[in-house]
Amino acid sequence: MTKIFQAGPLGDTIKSDCQVFYTPGSKSLAIEIESKVKVLFSNAIEDLAKKTLATLGITTGKVLIKDFGALPFVMMAQIETVIKRAHPKLDKEALPEFKTHAQYGTTFGRFRRSRLYLPGNQPKLFLNAGIHKPDGVILDLEDSVPPGEKDSARYIVRNALRSLDFFGAERMVRINQGELGMKDLEAIVPHNVHTILLPKAETADQVIAMENKVNTILKAKSLKQKVYYMPILESALGVLNAREIAMASKNNVGLAMGLEDYTADIGTQRTLEGKESFFARSMLVNAARAAGIQPIDTVFSDVGNEAALRQSVKETKALGFDGMGCIHPRQIKPIHEEFAPSELEIDKAKRIIVAADEAEARGLGVVAVGSKMIDPPVVKRAERTIKMAIDAGILSTNWKTGS
Amino acid sequence: MKMKSEMVKNAAGRMVPTEVNGKKQIPFKGVHGYKPKGTKAAPPISTCSDYPMDGNKVVGSIMEALKLAGLKDGMTISSHHHFRNGDLVMNQVFDAAAALKVKDLMWFPSAAFPCHEPLIKYMENGVIHHIEGSLNGPLGKYASEGKMNGLAVLRSHGGRWQAIQDGEIHVDIAVIAAPTADQLGNATGDRGPSACGLLGFGLADSQYADKVIVVTDNLVPFPCIPWQIQGQNVDYVVVLDKVGEPDKIVSGTTELTKSPDRLFIAELTAKFVREAGIMKDGFSFQAGAGGTALAFAIYLKEMMIEAGVKARFVRGGSTKYLVEMLEEGLTDYILDGQTFDLDGVRSMRENAGHINTSPFTSYNWHGKGNFASMVDVVVLGATEVDVNFNANVVTHSDGQMLHGIGGWQNCLFSKCTILPIPAFRDRIPVIVDEVTTLVGPGELIDVIITERGIAINPLRKDLIKATKNSGLPIRTIQELKAEIDDLIGGVPQKPKLTDEPIGVVKWVDGTVLDTIFKIENRK
To answer: Do A262 and A177 belong to one domain?
Structure first.
């Protein structure tokens, strides 16, 4: 009996993805294609399959592709998955073209109000994710991907990083815990990942180990890019070590809260009111602020309830957080609107900026509003408030000239 | 086998047959190019003394009515589609015709639905020769595969009325399913157990057919008020236990989309209407029943409230969302062409501002004007659009025939026609170099809105200027196309079509705009 290897989702409601079957053998390579879009793409699919298999060094056996409108980067990932399931030691990669629109950068202090989680094995959700303008997209390799799909998701995410335009959103990947996470890093780091989310961070050593691994990969590939980190605290130990974790790397940009696992860990359940997580969230905010990085809150899971989401964002903001996670594009706009500064905050920020401009124009070292001295961090904060107000569309870009 | 007809190139550069189903055709001459002369068709003169003085036209069965109406081989039987997929009447009509051993009938519905699948057997055994009407579902597939005798003739709602008035289609027997009727044949759609709203699509048939049969499951004593269909045009009334299935009459077409991408497109469309200055006091709009169009209406409503703007009228397909606007005072009128849900049906009964219209008032080429061209903005769907803004709504890029035209072509005459459509579906791009089938000439299509940006027809310099500093993502159609092609992995190959026509697309004036060819057999 020859074994048939398989990759791709199961079932009959597949969209923008494909199944690939591979039977290793000694006869020369035979490729068969069934596709929902065959009339329009049979030539393109055949061409892609041939090239991908050639890149992976496959010259024999039988390959069957059942396609449901997969884009090329997805089909390449599924082909690579099935081949590597049959030949686990194969170290060749079949990489799609690295598009210029996939090569933009990020900055340490950018907004991270909303980060949209995208399950790594569901590429159909990636395609238009960027049009909803989240501050970040999280291509998730961890909890949303079932254990049997980890390899496939890793190649899909890697290929997506090279292919897709996320329209300015920060390109984040949540890796797996432990050894699996190290394998994830090898696959994704060379492809302009901006920020890596480290799940279940409990010690500074974990962050350091990740950073070392990333540096090794970058060095081996002679890449100069900067990779940022956002450890996620999801346990009692993680929360208690928040400060050390936050300060473990100068490339940490934020600390994120993961409440589902945390509440289970302390032996309780999540409530809407959230008293059970008040300590953890406050601890996280303080640790992040002490390290000069962004505190980021957990996700709000009741997708259909916008009013409750808005209330939750208000509380999150009041606790000191700079952002939170989203699990649906519909949550992005309410989150941005609720994180937007109030009129009072904007007025105050405007006065500070005007005073700072004046001080600079007059060569003064000290900024003052009325008789009150203003410290540099407060000026910086005001600048951020103004930027956020402009970004949310509630303040004109040329507010200083007053139109 | 199809009759081979000579093909000529029309004014849109498309090859079209000069003869269809035995009738001479006029090739498309341009959007406003064809103006027929002469007088309109008319039904034979009748005399009231030939009808019961007590007004009672009720006969025992559909079969009896067909016999009395003189049903014979080769006749044309028409029907309306206000029951959509819940119609229980037309299958029975052709069962009766089959039992009467009649052959070669032409069915002329305003549209056919999946519930009419049983009629395929009558096309196979010759009871029905062919169907001319919007074909949805299995009948559409049957015709796409070239199995139907004759060619499918796809007409708009307005074009159907024009074809009757031009005498191109002579209806021998019109069957009008009616949710409520009286003995004289007065009928209405707005009440009764099978209420469907209005009966506008059956109006022309009632006025122009030789014989008219009203079929109802709710016979009321004279007078049936309102009388959307007038008994003076009716020959026979048949009473059945049930004429329609209400839950399929008001179908899932009115479900709001949950897709974040579609909602995004809908919101972008509403923003465009606002930013272009169209949304102002006294304006009018039309949005269909598709998920994106419904969501558009909801976003627009929010923006109207925010800006304190009221519409003079909205054009339905009425749905609960339009009814809410009417009842909240955001529009003076709903001018309803077909009623899509129960709220629409209720509103038509209860609200004086909810007006029952027909393709004659709104869409007809032979009217002395019609209000389709007075609507400020219309939002429609499409399967494809090309870089010259030509659009397709009847076939998919793989050549498969899928949809009827409906009122789509007629609506293009609106002051601003917007097509909000997803950039790609299952890897298939929406913007192509040349549409597979031309249904809407580009000069009438003003704006394409996808989730990846908005393209304005270069002919509409006014819209381009009005939205210049709006902050909306306005791009050229070529830029949009390039981005989408890059994402899907290049321009798709051309589908292989045979040179065998399976259908034609009529323009609203009755000329032939394009031909649908059979797709090559695939495995």
So the answer is: yes
Interacting residues of A398 by C-beta distance below 8 A, sequence separation 6+:
none
Question: Residue B395 in 3-state DSSP?
Answer: strand
Q: Which residues in chain A are contacts of B487 at CB distance < 8 A? A: 71, 127, 164-165
The reply to whether residue A42 touches residue B493, judged by beta carbons under 8 angstroms, is: yes
| Residue that has been written with the tokens 């959700």 in this structure | A125
Indicate the length of chain A as a whole number. Answer: 403
Measured distance CA(B28)–CA(B299) in Å, rounded: 38
Answer whether B260 sits within 8 Å of A132, measured CB to CB. Answer: yes
Same domain, A177 and A316: yes
Residue in A15, A39, A72 closest to B489 by CB: A72
For the CA atoms of B55, B57, B60, B64, the dihedral, rounded to the nearest 10 degrees, stands at 160
B83 versus A367: the higher-pLDDT residue is: B83
Cα–Cα distance between B139 and B175 in angstroms, integer? 20
| Tokens, residue B400 | 């498969």
As for how many domains chain A has, the answer is 3
Task: Check if the beta carbon of residue B203 is closer than 8 Å to that of residue B358.
Answer: yes
For residues B357 and B324, what is the distance between their CA atoms, to the nearest angstrom? 19
Please name each of the domains of chain B with its CATH number: 52-132+169-249 (3.40.1080.10), 252-495 (3.40.1080.10)
Cβ of B426 within 8 Å of Cβ of A40? The answer is: no
**pTM for this model (two decimals):** 0.92
Q: Do A39 and B452 touch (CB under 8 A)?
A: no
What is the domain range of residue A352? 343-391
Q: What is the pLDDT of residue B5?
A: 81
Cα A26 to Cα A60: distance, rounded to the nearest angstrom:
6
| Pairwise CB contact (< 8 Å): B426 & A44 | no
Distance between CA atoms of B18 and B267, rounded to whole angstroms? 44
Per the document, the length of chain B is: 523
Q: Same structural domain for residues A333 and A267? A: yes
Interchain CB distance below 8 Å, A41 and B427: yes
Nearest CA in chain A to B497: A39
Residues A119, A56 share a domain: no
Look at residue B3 in the predicted model and tell me its pLDDT: 56
Q: Are residues A215 and A362 in the same domain?
A: no
Q: Find the residue in B nearest to A124 (Cα).
A: B426
State yes or no: pLDDT of B36 exceeds 50.
yes
Interface test with B, best of A15, A74, A99, A128 (most B CBs within 10 A): A128
The whole-number pLDDT of residue B89 equals 97
- A262-319 pLDDT, tens digit per residue, is 999 999 998 888 899 999 999 999 999 999 999 999 999 898 899 999 999 999 999 9
Same domain, A77 and A221: no
Chain A closest CA to B119's CA: distance in Å? 28
Separation CA A29–CA B292 (nearest Å): 46
Express each pLDDT in A213-241 by its tens digit: 999 999 999 999 999 999 999 999 999 99
H or E stretch including B292?
helix B291-307
Question: Cα distance from B386 to chain A (closest Cα, Å)?
Answer: 16
Residue from the list B398, B425, B488 with its beta carbon closest to the beta carbon of A39: B398
Contact A72 B428 (CB under 8 A): no
How many Cβ atoms from other residues are within 10 Å of residue B458's Cβ?
11
pLDDT in tens, B388-431: 999 999 998 888 877 789 899 999 999 999 999 999 998 999 99
Is A48 near chain B, with CB under 8 Å?
yes
